[in-house]
Write a structure and sequence with these properties.
Keywords: Membrane, Transmembrane, Transmembrane helix. By secondary structure, the chain is mainly alpha-helical. Helix content is 85%, strand content 0%. The protein is built from 1 helix and no strands.
């Protein structure tokens, strides 16, 4: 294994850890909270389900 290959493998591992530990949970929290906000905001104008 050459030094370039080892450095590339190390970078790949760091990117994988960043994606799985930080980015995926952050994006899922933002997506769920964004959907909850959109539903809450729409209910300000339309009322709760079944109230119409």
């Amino acid at each position: 294994m050459s030094a370039n290959s080892a450095a590339e493998k190390s970078l790949e591992l760091k990117i994988f850890i960043f994606l799985t530990v930080f980015l995926a949970p952050l994006l899922s929290v933002l997506l769920v909270s964004g959907l909850g906000f959109a539903i809450w905001f729409s209910q300000i104008f339309t009322g709760p389900p079944g109230a119409g």
